[in-house]
Design goal:
about 290 residues, Farnesyl Diphosphate Synthase, two-stranded antiparallel ribbon, about 0% strand
Length: about 290
C-alpha cells in the first residue's frame, strides 16, 4: 500500500482543520454568548484559532475511509469541544497551572478562574449536544463521548496525574494514566468516525486500536519534544516516558507503537492517508 504524498496529506489536514474550525465557529459557538457574553467569549477563546485538531482529523478521515462521502463534522466538533474543555480545566491553578495554551494566555489567565471553570463546563455540555446531532445514532455517540470524558477516560487520567505529583510511579502506571488522559479521547475519535460510517463493531475496534496506539506514540513524542523545555510536568515533578527510557529507547517505543497501530488497519482499503498520518505524528517537531 503506497503512502499518500506528503503535500497531499498536509493539504488534507489543513482542509479538515479549516472545515471543523468553521463549523465550530458558525454552528456550535456562534450563540454561546447569548445570555452571558463573557462566557461565550471565553468558550470561543478556548476552542478557536489553534490546536492540531488530531482528533477531528481522525474522526473525519476514518468516516470517509469506511464510507466515502460520509460527513462526520458534527462528531469531529464534539471531540474538539470536549478536548478543549479538558484543556481549560487542566490549565487551571488547581491542576497544571499553565499560563499559556496554543500560543496565547490560557483561559483562566485571560478571563479569571471562575469564568474559565464555567466555560469548561459549558463546553462539555455543548460537546454532548454536538454528539447527539445525528438522531439515529445519538445514544451511541453520547455513550462513546461520555466514556472518553468521564471516569473511564479523561477524568480518571487527570486524577491519576494529580495524584502522581512528586511520587514515583511505575511505567505501567504511567501508560495507564496516559491511555486514560489522552489516548481514550483519541480512540473515541476513531469510534465516532466508524459510527458515522455505520461500520461494524469489529471494524470500529480495529480503528480504535489504531488510534489508541498512535495516541500513545503521540504522547511519547510529546515527552521527547518537551525534554529540553521547562514545562509544567517538570515543575510539578511528574513522571514522563523519559523517566523510564533514554531518548533513543523512547523513539524506538514510539515507532513500535506506530507500527502496531498501522497493522490494525492495513487490511482495510483506502487507509493510505491514515497510515501516512501515523508516520507524520511520529516525526513531528512541534
Amino acid at each position: 500500500m503506497k503512502p499518500i504524498e506528503q503535500n497531499g496529506l498536509t493539504r488534507r489536514i489543513r482542509e479538515d482543520a479549516d472545515a471543523v474550525e468553521a463549523a465550530l465557529a458558525g454552528r456550535w459557538l456562534a450563540d454561546a454568548g447569548t445570555h452571558a457574553p463573557l462566557l461565550g467569549e471565553a468558550m470561543r477563546w478556548a476552542v478557536l484559532g489553534g490546536g492540531k485538531r488530531v482528533r477531528a482529523f481522525l474522526c473525519l478521515e476514518i468516516a470517509r475511509v469506511l464510507s466515502p462521502g460520509t460527513d462526520a463534522t458534527d462528531y469531529a466538533c464534539a471531540l474538539e469541544l470536549l478536548h478543549a474543555s479538558s484543556l481549560v480545566h487542566d490549565d487551571m491553578p488547581e491542576m497544571d497551572n499553565d499560563e499559556i495554551r496554543r500560543g496565547k494566555p490560557s483561559c483562566h489567565k485571560q478571563f479569571g478562574p471562575a469564568i474559565a471553570l464555567m466555560a469548561g463546563d459549558a463546553l462539555i455540555a455543548l460537546a454532548f449536544r454536538a454528539a447527539a446531532s445525528d438522531e439515529e445514532n445519538a445514544a451511541a455517540a453520547v455513550s462513546v463521548l461520555s466514556e472518553a470524558g468521564g471516569w473511564q477516560g479523561i477524568a480518571s487520567g487527570q486524577t491519576l496525574d494529580l495524584l502522581s505529583e512528586g511520587r514515583r510511579i511505575s511505567l505501567d502506571e504511567l501508560k495507564t494514566l496516559q491511555r486514560l488522559k489522552t489516548g481514550r479521547l483519541i480512540a473515541a475519535a476513531a469510534e465516532l468516525g466508524a459510527l458515522a460510517a455505520r461500520a461494524s463493531a469489529e471494524t470500529a475496534r480495529d480503528f480504535a486500536a489504531y488510534a489508541e496506539a498512535i495516541g500513545l506514540a503521540f504522547q511519547v513524542t510529546d515527552d521527547l519534544l518537551d525534554a529540553g523545555e521547562t514545562g509544567s510536568d517538570r515543575a510539578r515533578d511528574l513522571a514522563t516516558f523519559l523517566s523510564f527510557m533514554t531518548p533513543d529507547e523512547a523513539r524506538a517505543y514510539a515507532s513500535e507503537l506506530t507500527e502496531k497501530g498501522k497493522d490494525a488497519i492495513r487490511k482495510y482499503p483506502g487507509t493510505e492517508i491514515l497510515l501516512s498520518f501515523a508516520d507524520r505524528l511520529l516525526v513531528r517537531t512541534c
